[in-house]
Amino acid sequence: MGYVRGVNATSSFDGDPTTTGPDGDPTATDPGRIVLLTTSHRVAPGLLSWPAWQALRDADQVLCADGAHPQLPYLREAGITVDEASPSAQELVDACAGGRTLVVVATGEGEPRLTDGLARLAGSGRIQMPDLELLPASYDLPGARLLDLVQVMDRIRLECPWSSQQTHKGLAKYGIEEAYELVEAIEEGDRDELREELGDVLLQVVFHARIAEEDEEAPFSIDDVAGAIVAKLIHRHPHVFGEETATTPEEVKEHWLRTKAEEKQRTSVTEGIPLGQPGLALAAKLASRVRTAGLEVPLPTGEGVGYELLAIAARAEAEGVDPEAALRAAGRAYRDAIRAEEGTAEEGTAELDAED
């Protein structure tokens, strides 16, 4: 079936929207159909749904107010004439008279003027409205908004005086701060804060990847970062993407540790443990590696609080308790007690002031 060619935009709005009945009086015609075609800028132009291509092919006329719309070259290549026009709602309704179908390719901002006008006409009840259809021609896939983040970061890196001067080392402290704020949001159970802090952590990833693109010796991009973690996840989940099986969390962890050991080829269980992390977390991680490897390594003995904390952290890890999280929980309880005492003290001061 060939494509229906559109007609000139101006002539389509000058026609008579009615026909003459047997007695010479105007008689309302078939009101026709208006299709508002929307597309996502996050999907490559020309990749439209089959219903969209059908609507475009069968339309009596295709209109678009934006002559630079990214879809236009692909529509024209497919043999579809698109008229650059921005009719009013009434003009569009009139042009549909006689059973004609008009497809409006929406601009990036949508068509608020047109849709509001059509809504007012429909609400007036004074005219017979054409069938109105909103037809999404392309859809965002899950994660599509990440493309927006990459684009925004590109522009900020180029145009912002502060962002354009940042380096990996200069941003390192923000990564630590944002990670701690994320942990706090999780432990506080604040869902809104959690969503925001996840965004802040994600920003650090995208920012560092954007800076890395500019490295002259070993550049890499956000796609390289994503590709590497995808490959790692697939390799370390042979029970999902391969032929191995795992029915319990313990078996999954065993797969993970085995494949990780094969990848890293480490000579010591301590390799890969960052010594700059908080002390309790460091002690618990060391104890975890020793226990997982089946080693019998007694804790070093010595005098002082450090050795006492090391023993406590090792005991907590053996009992399945995160010592850092446990200490933070105790710290929050202490903070609440301090605030309660401060409130009591303030009330007592206020009472004394009132007596004076």
TrEMBL record:
Keyword Methyltransferase: no
Keyword tRNA-binding: no
Top EC class, one word: hydrolase
Keywords: Hydrolase
Domain of life: Bacteria
Family annotation (Gene3D superfamilies): MazG-like (1.10.287.1080)
UniProt domain NTP pyrophosphohydrolase MazG-like: residue ranges: 166-241
EC number, UniProt record: 3.6.1.9
GO molecular-function terms, A-Z: nucleoside triphosphate diphosphatase activity
InterPro entries from the UniProt entry: MazG-like_dom (IPR004518), NTP-PPase_MazG-like_N (IPR048015), NTP_PyrPHydrolase_MazG (IPR011551)
Region annotation Disordered: where it falls in the sequence: 1-32
Segments of skewed composition (Low complexity): 14-32
Matching PANTHER family: NUCLEOSIDE TRIPHOSPHATE PYROPHOSPHOHYDROLASE
Protein name: Nucleoside triphosphate pyrophosphohydrolase
Source species: Streptomyces lutosisoli
